[in-house]
Amino acid sequence: MTDADDSAERARARRQRPAGTRVRMSAAQRREQLIAIGRQLFAERGFDATSVEEVAARAKVSKPVVYEHFGGKEGLYAVVVDREVRALLDRIAAALTAGHPRELLEQAALALLDYIEEEPHGFKVLVRESPVLSPAGNFSSVMNDVAHQVEHILGGEFKSRGLDPKFAELYSQALVGMVALVGQWWREARKPKKEMVAAHLVNLAWNGLSHLEPKPGLITRKVK
């Protein structure tokens, strides 16, 4: 059978299917559907205000289907958070491609702001605290992982400048914490524009209060 014949056969099958009949999802497809619905509900309402009943209702399945896949609300929440943690860390790691420390700082700040802008539900899930998760499953822990990556960069820079590398951890926590807090503020404010926010963050972190540039720019991206 050619590809054209196969497409025609599928089209005939769709036409012959009774109106209102739903195509049965595979187990993998159903799991992904439930994760997507859970992600949205947890972002909108938080863990406590979200119920298995509502997840099931939005998916148009019975409650036992949710329990079968995740064991309950806690299991679904843990999967959603784990995915967001990995997605954010992967995004930041992929962004850190420059060789100069200032450019790396820009890339890290922009990667976080990009994530906040493009994945608002995921970010809301991460910044919400939940009693069912250990400290390894919240936004603070994600930023701590990012700080450890920045620490290695700063450590090398400190050595090259004759500074004590043992303070690289302190500075990395300070830098990442500043970017993270500003990112949470910007999530609600949405102004100034993302690139301008990153430029001012880097301006403060790189130049310090005593040497701030009046109109900071970015090396790695144009400020709009």
UniProtKB/TrEMBL annotation:
Known DNA-binding region: 51-70
InterPro entries, per database record: DesT_TetR_C, DNA-bd_HTH_TetR-type_CS, Homeodomain-like_sf, HTH-type_TetR-like_transc_reg, HTH_TetR, Tet_transcr_reg_TetR-rel_C_sf
Keyword Lipoprotein in annotation: no
Pfam families: TetR_C_46, TetR_N
UniProt keyword annotation of rRNA processing present: no
Chain intervals for the UniProt region annotation (Disordered): 1-21
Biological source species: Paractinoplanes deccanensis
Protein name, per record: TetR family transcriptional regulator
Key words, A-Z: DNA-binding, Transcription, Transcription regulation
Record domain HTH tetR-type: where: 28-88
SUPFAM superfamilies assigned: Homeodomain-like, Tetracyclin repressor-like, C-terminal domain
